[in-house]
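Purpose: get a first structural picture of the assembly so the mutagenesis plan has something to point at.
Setup: two entries, given in the order below. No constraints added.
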Amino acid sequence: MLDQLSRRLDEAQGRLHAALVAGEPTDAHRAAISQLEHDIERERFAQKQADAERARRRTSAIKERADAIADEARQRIADLIARFPLTSESQP
Amino acid sequence: MTSQIEFAAAALSQAEQALHDVQDVEDGSRANVSDVEAKLAAVKARKVKIRADLDAGTLTEAQAGGLFQIAGADEQDLADILRGATERLGSAIAATREALAIRDRAVVGLEMAERRLKFDALANHVGIVEQTLTSALAELFALGSSLGMPRVLSAVWRPSAALRNAITLGLPPQ
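Result (structure tokens, whole complex):
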């Protein structure tokens, strides 16, 4: 998407240059360039947001998995102690 | 207590994720190499076909020469691309191997942390069991005395051979 916008901006700048050389009106070309620059900026921002969201999801997934691993380990420790109950009612 | 487990679990989780990432890269690199190899094989087949068409008279010398030149250039380009792709695959395989070693070390780290915590927890539990046993023996001794039994502990309780050997000889129970 960003590549496509950059290509269109290059083309629009080429048309502006040609219009300047030919002495034709340039307002429409300038407006188009301005719009494309705005679109590129918006696209860049959207990509940064998407990157940040991906990083956040990745961090969250790592944290979730770490919690699960730790829970399993703690459960195994608890299971070990539970094998040696103190009350006769809880004897296997 | 939990911080050791949490630290080891976080290291393992990160190592697993890193391994997953490099495995993805390796899969992509492998697919890329296969793709380029297939294209290279197709170009080689194209050259064989040009030769066959020339032999069969379907193509003139000039036509076959032109087609051969194009196929040769394609083959050269693809061979260059394949060299690069193979190098990248080699790097990806090495990265996967390294990530696997890091993951395995993280697994061992977690096992060690868990074993240490199990030891501490069980040692603490044995202390509680021992305290419970001595309190119960005191109560048993008092009850026995009140019933007129001799005022020696052996009159109300005799430890098992395993417990006696553990305490007096330091032999671990089987």
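Chain B has three helices and no strands.
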